[in-house]
Every structure is written in C-alpha cells, then in structure tokens.
C-alpha cells in the first residue's frame, strides 16, 4: 500500500497538468488514499508486536522449568491463556478492532506452542523434536482458517519452513513432505486473497528450492536449481498468454524464478570450483540473466525487477572480482568485461527512456 500510494502521489501532478485528472478529482483521490492509509496506524502495529512479545514470554516461562507448580496448575494456566486470548479476540472483532483481534489470535497461537513444549517437558516426552513444530504449525493453520486470521497463517507458513529445515538438518536429505505443508498454507492464502501471504509463501518455497542444490546429487545439484528457477520464470511470462487472470502473478513469478536461477548459478561459480572456461561461461550466463531482469524492469516500469537486477549484477561483479583478482590477466579481463557491460546498460537505458518519452509526447 505504501509503494502504491507513493506512485499515485508522484503521478497525480503530471496527470493534472496533462488534463487527465481535474483538481476536484485529485482532491478526491488524495482523500481516498488518506482514508486507506489509516489502517496502518502505529497502534495496530504495536498490538501485533505485543502479541509476539507475549508469545516469547510464554515460551521463556516454560523454559524456566517451573517445577514448583503442580502439573495440573500448569496445564490449567496454559488452557486459561488460550481461552483468554481467543475470547479477547472475539470481543475485539465484535467491537470493530480487527488489528488488535488478530494480535490476540497470534498471542493465542504462541501460547499454544508454549503449551506443546510444556507438556513435553512435564511428561519427559523424548520424541522426534521437529514433530512439535509441525503440531504447532497445524494449530496456527487451524486458528488462521477458523478465525480468518492472516497473521496466524503467516506464522503457520514460517513454522512449516522451520519444521522442514529442522528435518533436513537431521536427515541430511531433501524433505519432500514440506511441499504438502507449504501447499496447505498457500491454499489458505489464495482463499483469503492475501497478497503478502502469497509473497511469504513464494519466499519460503524459493529458499527450499535453493537448498536442493546442496542436497541433490551429493551436494552438486545447483544445475537443477537453475533449471527450476528458469521454469518458474518462463511460467510467469507465459501465464498471461493462456489466462488473463494470471497477469497479476506474472511479474512476481518472473522475479522469484530469476532469483532462484541466480542463486543456482552463483553456487555453481563460487561454491563449487569450475575450471576457468566453465567459470567464464557461467559468468556470462549469470550476467545475461541479470541484464534480462534489468531490461524487463526498464521496459515495464517495474522497480522491483530493476533493483533485483542491479543487486544481482553488483553481487556477480564483486564475486568475479575476488575470484579473478589473483591473476593480472584475470583482473584486466574482469575490468574490461565490467566496463563493456556497464556501457551496454547505459545505452539500453537511454534508448528505452527515449522511446518512452516519445510515446508520452505523442499521447499528449
């Protein structure tokens, strides 16, 4: 919302000067933006942060090993905390304070996680530790679905990622069950039409895919990661061709796919040790990838694609420098290639800007 508001406020004066928006219309648009921005007041944000702190307090209380309390009293305390949190959430929903209600739900989910640890501690349950995180994630998912709480669903997604990472660290193999948990939470994000949740799901899935490079083929599966990233990017580009309602997912899919492919290419260059010829080919492929991202951003006006491309270019160039700086020939080739690439970028940017400016003048 913040980025959208900034773009509108930047474009409004130009639209007014071009006669596309009347002064009255501009005032109405600014009023509409102001009314929507009130949902981002400091109080609801502090409420969410307070819920997180309450969750940490509950878990720390459990970790203190409170042996002096009877077991029944401990269980009653956890149950009372759960009932109180969800009861307060219901009251807040009724009184028209949804942000604070979601904070109370988040606190209840955190207390539920603390309760799992408490029961395991009290009864000396020495099972598979990641299972406790999975149960916690399922509880957060259930709360998010039944109470329609997006923050609870976001916590469920983070817990699914933690569960999978823990399972992988123990087994040293790919944790395929992650996909089931990820899909379940992602479906609820789609059901709620919550864009931030879908971005969170994409980030968690991207990290899981990148990890495949270090697990498949005895730790040399980065080419698989590159292939998957390019496939996701291609789907993002082709999606709107087959279904117009997929257009809103096109740019994000392209961005995440290219990021995954970049991570795989980077690992193939600098985590593994390819020969000089292989390093040059991989570097050229990586630079072509980031230049494609920059070109897409310039052509479509997507600032996120531009920044991803610039960041990828900077990371690649610096990594190549430190990789080749040991030899004089390598350093000279590095600086020559970097200079040519930067000059090409400048030429592309100038031509695209000129075309965009000509189109704007033709319209006006």
Summary of the model, kept short:
The chain is mainly α. Helices cover 84% and strands 0% of the residues.
Characterise this structure.
Helix content is 84%, strand content 0%. By secondary structure, the protein is mostly helical. The chain has a domain at 1-40. It is flat.
Architecture blueprint of SSEs:
Layout: H1 2-17, H2 23-37, H3 42-63, H4 71-94, H5 98-122, H6 129-146, H7 150-171, H8 178-192, H9 195-212, H10 222-242, H11 247-271, H12 276-300, H13 303-324, H14 328-363
Shape: flat
Query: With helices defined by DSSP (H or I, 4 residues minimum), what is the helix count?
Result: 14
Rg over CA atoms: 26 Å
Beta-strand proportion: under 5%
Helix/strand class: mainly alpha
Oligomer: single chain
Name the descriptors.
364 residues, mainly alpha, 14 helices, 84% helix, 0% strand
């Amino acid at each position: 919302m913040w980025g959208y508001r900034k773009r509108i406020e930047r474009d409004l004066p130009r639209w007014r000067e071009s006669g596309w928006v009347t002064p009255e219309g501009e005032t109405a648009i600014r009023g509409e933006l102001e009314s929507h921005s009130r949902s981002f007041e400091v109080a609801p944000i502090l409420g969410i942060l307070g819920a997180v702190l309450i969750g940490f307090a509950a878990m720390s209380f459990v970790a203190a090993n409170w042996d002096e309390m009877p077991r029944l009293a401990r269980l009653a305390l956890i149950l009372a905390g759960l009932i109180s949190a969800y009861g307060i959430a219901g009251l807040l929903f009724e009184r028209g304070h949804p942000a604070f209600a979601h904070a109370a739900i988040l606190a209840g989910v955190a207390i539920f996680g603390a309760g799992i640890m408490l029961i395991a501690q009290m009864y000396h349950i020495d099972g598979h530790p990641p299972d406790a995180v999975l149960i916690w994630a399922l509880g957060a998912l259930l709360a998010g679905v039944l109470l329609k709480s997006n923050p609870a669903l976001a916590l469920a997604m983070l817990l699914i990622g933690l569960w999978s990472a823990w399972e992988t660290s123990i087994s040293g193999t790919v944790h395929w069950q992650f996909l089931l948990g990820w899909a379940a939470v992602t479906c609820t994000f789609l059901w709620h039409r919550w864009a931030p949740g879908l971005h969170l799901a994409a980030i968690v899935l991207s990290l899981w895919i990148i990890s495949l490079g270090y697990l498949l083929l005895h730790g040399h599966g980065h080419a698989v990661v590159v292939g998957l990233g390019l496939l996701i990017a291609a789907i993002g580009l082709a999606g709107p061709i087959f279904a117009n309602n997929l257009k809103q997912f096109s740019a994000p899919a392209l961005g995440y796919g290219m990021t995954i492919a970049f991570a795989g290419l980077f690992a193939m260059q600098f985590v593994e040790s390819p020969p000089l010829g292989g390093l040059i080919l991989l570097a050229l492929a990586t630079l072509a990838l980031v230049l494609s991202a920059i070109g897409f951003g310039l052509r479509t006006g997507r600032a996120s694609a531009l920044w991803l491309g610039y960041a990828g270019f900077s990371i690649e160039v610096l990594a190549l420098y430190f990789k080749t700086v040991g030899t004089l020939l390598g350093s000279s080739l590095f600086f020559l290639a970097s200079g040519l690439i930067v000059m090409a970028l400048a030429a592309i940017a100038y031509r695209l800007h000129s075309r965009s400016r000509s189109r704007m003048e033709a319209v006006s």
